[in-house]
Structure formats: C-alpha cells, structure tokens
C-alpha cells in the first residue's frame, strides 16, 4: 500500500524548490522504507537543482540522512523495522570487478531502489544520489541502510551520509594520514573541516587549514587545525612550506576542486608526498602541469570518491568515536531547520554562513 508524504522537489533547472506530495510505494524485494529523522543540506543538492548533475527532473532532493526503518521488502536480511540507520549512496553489489578484488569501496555497480517514488500525478521522481531524503519517508535499497548505535543524534549521524564522510575518509582512507604527519587542507567548508577532524583523529602533528574566509578558518581551528592560512593575501604554497620546515606537507588535500587549488596542493606537498582531490570539479575545468614535475616530485596523486568509505565498516566505527567524545560531529551542525526552509538554507550555504544546515523532521 502506497503512502503519501511531504517532500522537497526541484521541478526545473534553477527554479526554487517546492514542497510537494510524494507517493512512496511499499518496498519491493531488497528494498526498505525509512522514516527520515534528519537530513543535511549539501552542495550536491544545490547542484541537482541547478542542473549540474543531469537533467532528469524532477528531483527529490536530500541525501545526508539518518532515520528509522519502517518496513522492508522480501529477501532483506540483517535489517528490520525499528533499526536506526544512516543512509548511504554506496550500497555495494558484491559482484563487480572492484568488489571481487576485495575493494568494495570502489564498487562500480551500487544498488538503488528499483521502484520509483512519484509526484501525486504519477510523475516519476529522480531521488538525489538514489536517496531523496528531504521527505518524511523515502524508499531505498536495503543496502543503502547502515545500522548504527541509536544513541547518536540523528542530525549529527546523518552527515556521515555524504560530506563529513567524504572529508574524514579523504584523510583517513585515501590520504592515509598517520601519526606525526603534516597535513594541509585547501578549502574549509563542511568537507574541508571534516578533513581537519580526520587528520586530528589519525594523529597528525601539524594540520594547516587554508581558506579565503576567516570564519571558515576559525571553524577549522575549532576542529583541530594547528595553523591557518588566509589565501587572500598570502602565497599559499610558500606559507605551507614555511610551516613545514621548508619542505611541504606530507599530505595535501584539495577540498575545493579547482585547477588553481589543485596546483597549490601539488606544489605544497613534500617530495614523495600525497595529493588528494576530494573537491568536485565541473566538467569544463582543465589542469596543466609540467610532466617533469609530476615525475620529479614522486609520491601519489589520488582522487577520493566518498572518502573511499565502506559504509558497513566506517559508519558504525565513526559513530562509536562520536559517542565516546572523540569525534565532534555536533560541531558540523550549524542550525536545524524545517523542510520548508531548504531554499533559504541554500542561500545561507552559498554565502558561507553555515557548515551544515540540517533538516530535522
């Protein structure tokens, strides 16, 4: 039996979002209906609204979510009504070439729900990142539900569903930050500040935060940055080198995703150091580097997809650290808002006023 709920929908490119009636079908085989408790407002949702992902409008927005399983379909094991879950967009298949090689965090065939949610008139919706959680309830593949300790605050826990996990994982998984390392992060929005928190968890000795906004640099310092650099009037590469004994950082993470910031990251790392790109570039961006410099500096140039996370492994572990007081996920929640306030939250995000606005239902 279908249910009707309220949800935030992008009906057309660049148009303000609207509150619509969403028809949620019963879960089919391998699917689950989740009652959403909280969902973060992420830049990716705005990219969907602006047509920057694809043109498969209308979109049911929202994907950084936590909630409670309401019902499951046939064949679902290990998940039951009442389970508290974080939703993820990497429901690994277990059968693709990445999974079979023991690298499921690269899964090339992740699962989404097969049955569409629709508008009241029957128009199929495209759920953001296969989730669509700016809604009172959503239908997902059961593998998109990761059970975690229900003692966690939903507003904080849900942020592991995308941006915070991307940043933590860029440091912990992709960058392999270790005890005593020096780390620089360029761009200190939600993802960049999560990089800082991840580097701190890993035991980095020096964490250098770079941004053009002093407010964001203060956020980074509160989450563990030992030094800050405002790139407005500074030579970012020279400053990072100065702060690392003239050598450059062991790991430099670009959380912006522009050619100029990547170039800074490339030249701000030590010889044989690591560069990680976690900021998402746009299709038209191009990068040019002298090939001799790529060869001569050695090390590794990596891209981080979703923090190279494995939700079943990483989410419960990070929630345990949060509950132990060792990972301050609450610090990323700048404000909690209602479903009706998403459009205004996009504007505040664009002005750099928040780390995360979180819809609380």
Descriptive terms for the model:
single chain; 361 residues; alpha/beta; Quinone Oxidoreductase, Chain A, domain 1; Rossmann fold; seven-stranded mixed beta sheet; six-stranded parallel beta sheet; 11 helices; 18 strands; 26% helix; mycothiol-dependent formaldehyde dehydrogenase activity; EC 1.1.1.306
Uncertain spans: none
CATH topology description of the largest domain: Quinone Oxidoreductase, Chain A, domain 1
The count of domains is 2
The percentage helix is: 25-40%
**How many helices in DSSP terms?**
11
Shape: globular
How would you briefly describe this protein structure?
Helices cover 26% and strands 26% of the residues. With 361 residues, the chain is of the alpha/beta class.
Structure description:
The chain has 361 residues and is an alpha/beta fold. The longest helix is centred in the middle third of the chain and has 13 residues, at 190-202. Helix 11 (342-350) links the parallel strand 17 and strand 18. The mean pLDDT is 97. The chain is 26% helix and 26% strand. It contains eleven helices and 18 strands. It is globular. It folds into two domains: 3-161 and 328-360, Medium-chain alcohol dehydrogenases, catalytic domain (Quinone Oxidoreductase, Chain A, domain 1, Alpha-Beta Complex); 167-305, Rossmann fold. Strands 3, 5, 6, 9, 10, 17 and 18 form a seven-stranded mixed β-sheet that branches. A six-stranded parallel β-sheet has the order 13-12-11-14-15-16, with helices on both faces. The chain has helices at 43-49, 97-100, 154-157, 163-174, 190-202, 214-222, 236-243, 259-267, 291-297, 311-323, 342-350, and strands at residues 3-10, 18-24, 31-40, 59-60, 64-72, 84-87, 118-119, 126-127, 137-141, 145-147, 182-186, 206-211, 227-230, 249-254, 269-277, 300-303, 335-337, 357-360.
């Amino acid at each position: 039996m279908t249910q009707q709920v309220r949800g935030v929908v992008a009906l057309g490119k660049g148009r303000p979002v609207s509150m619509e009636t969403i028809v949620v079908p019963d879960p089919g085989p391998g699917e689950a209906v989740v009652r959403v408790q909280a969902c973060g407002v992420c830049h990716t949702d705005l990219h969907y609204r602006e047509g920057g992902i694809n043109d498969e409008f209308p979109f049911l927005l929202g994907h950084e979510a936590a909630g409670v399983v309401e019902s499951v379909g046939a064949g679902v094991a290990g998940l039951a009504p009442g389970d508290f879950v974080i939703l993820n967009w990497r429901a690994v298949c277990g059968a693709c070439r990445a999974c079979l090689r023991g690298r499921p965090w690269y899964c090339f065939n992740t699962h989404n729900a097969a049955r569409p949610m629709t508008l009241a008139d029957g128009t199929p919706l495209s759920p953001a990142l296969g989730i669509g959680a700016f809604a009172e309830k959503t239908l997902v593949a059961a593998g998109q539900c990761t059970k975690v300790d229900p003692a966690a605050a939903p507003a904080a826990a849900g942020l592991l569903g995308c941006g915070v996990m991307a940043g933590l994982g860029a440091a912990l998984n992709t960058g392999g930050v270790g005890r005593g390392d020096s780390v620089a992060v360029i761009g200190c929005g939600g993802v960049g500040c999560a990089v800082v928190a991840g580097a701190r968890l890993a035991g980095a000795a020096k964490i250098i935060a770079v941004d053009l906004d002093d407010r964001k640099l203060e956020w980074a310092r509160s989450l563990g940055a030992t030094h800050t650099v405002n790139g407005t009037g500074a030579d970012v590469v020279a400053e990072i080198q100065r702060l690392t004994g003239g050598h450059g950082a062991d790991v430099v993470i670009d959380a912006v995703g522009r050619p100029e910031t990547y170039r800074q990251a490339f030249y701000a790392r030590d010889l044989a150091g690591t560069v990680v790109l976690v900021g998402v570039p746009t299709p038209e961006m191009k990068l040019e580097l002298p090939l001799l410099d790529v060869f001569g500096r050695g090390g590794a140039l990596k891209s981080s997809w979703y923090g190279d996370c494995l939700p079943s492994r990483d989410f419960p572990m990070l929630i345990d650290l949060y509950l132990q007081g060792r990972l301050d996920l609450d610090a990323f929640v700048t404000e909690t808002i209602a479903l009706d306030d998403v459009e205004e939250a996009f504007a505040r995000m664009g002005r750099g006023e928040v780390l995360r606005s979180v819809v609380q239902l």
